[in-house]
Amino acid sequence: SAVISQKPSRDICQRGTSLTIQCQVDSQVTMMFWYRQQPGQSLTLIATANQGSEATYESGFVIDKFPISRPNLTFSTLTVSNMSPEDSSIYLCSVDGPGYNEQFFGPGTRLTVL
Amino acid sequence: QKEVEQDPGPLSVPEGAIVSLNCTYSNSAFQYFMWYRQYSRKGPELLMYTYSSGNKEDGRFTAQVDKSSKYISLFIRDSQPSDSATYLCAMIGYSSASKIIFGSGTRLSIRP
Questions:
Q1: Which of helix, strand or coil describes residue B20?
Q2: Nearest to A41 among B43, B44, B104 (CB)
Q3: Residue B23's beta-bridge partner residues?
Q4: Strand locations in chain B, DSSP E?
Q5: Rg for chain A, CA atoms, rounded
Q6: C-alpha–C-alpha distance, residues B17 and B6, integer Å
Q7: At residue B36, does pLDDT exceed 70?
Q8: pLDDT in tens, A82-100
Q9: For residue B89, which of B53, B36, B38 has the smallest C-alpha distance?
Q10: A89 CB burial (10 A radius; 0-12, 13-18, 19+)
């Protein structure tokens, strides 16, 4: 299984600022995924990041708010821009597992916006 | 209506009890049904999956799918305090364009 690390593990930010979350995988992967997990809510896919191309965003998520970089096959970043308290959530990155239906997740970044 | 509904709990049971966790769904295109376990401060990890209808057993865990009722279950036998976690059901269709849809998770606590 892939080992995924995320930085930072948690942060408390002020309204209007931006935070960049890093995701590092111990092996090369084609696709990386970014999810949001709000309290009591389902894991929600924000976007899919392929190396060498623009990220694909899900309905309700836009590049200006959540810019993503994917500079190589083991690394990606998600920026949460112009934050508001509604952006307080856990942000998780994941990669495809060997099975069609499997994903490996990082430990998550717990973000609190004041 | 959400595509996948899951009771958030919390569910608290004594050690050794049988636990039943459930999800309902609305999209008949779902073909793979998964259960992820998420410990506190960790990311979800795949516990087991089932393709289409039927049962699948793995040690103390049994996954059950009833596609006619659009209902899936996870049973945990002889529950242990180490089973205390949030359990998320998840499902995906067969199309290459399908995405995994997750339930909101049920928080389970096993009392010693």
A1: strand
A2: B104
A3: B6, B72
A4: 4-6, 11-14, 19-25, 30-38, 45-51, 54-58, 61-66, 71-76, 85-93, 101-102, 106-111
A5: 13
A6: 21
A7: yes
A8: 999 999 999 999 998 877 6
A9: B36
A10: buried
Place of tokens 């976007």: A47
Q: Is B3 helix (H, G, I), strand (E, B) or coil?
A: coil
Residues of chain B positioned with their CB less than 8 A from the CB of A103: 46, 100
Q: How far is B75 from chain A (nearest CA, A)?
A: 20
Asked if the C-beta of B102 comes within 8 angstroms of chain A's C-beta atoms, the answer is yes
Give the whole-angstrom CA distance, residue A33 versus residue A10. 19
Please measure the distance between the N-terminal and C-terminal CA atoms of chain A and give it in whole angstroms. Answer: 36
Of A9-13, A58-62, B48-52, the one with minimum mean pLDDT is B48-52
Q: Which of B32, B41, B46 sits opposite A107 (nearest CB)?
A: B41
Residue A85 DSSP class: G
Cβ-based neighbours of B63, under 8 Å, separated by 6 or more: B33, B35, B48, B49, B50, B55, B56, B57, B72, B73, B74, B75
Strands of A3-72 (E only): list them. 4-7, 10-13, 19-25, 31-37, 43-50, 56-57, 68-72
Helix (H) or strand (E) run with residue A89 in it: strand A89-96
pLDDT tens digit string along A41-54?
889 999 999 888 88
> Are A43 and B92 within 8 A, CB to CB?
no
pLDDT band at B97 (very low <50, low <70, confident <90, very high): low
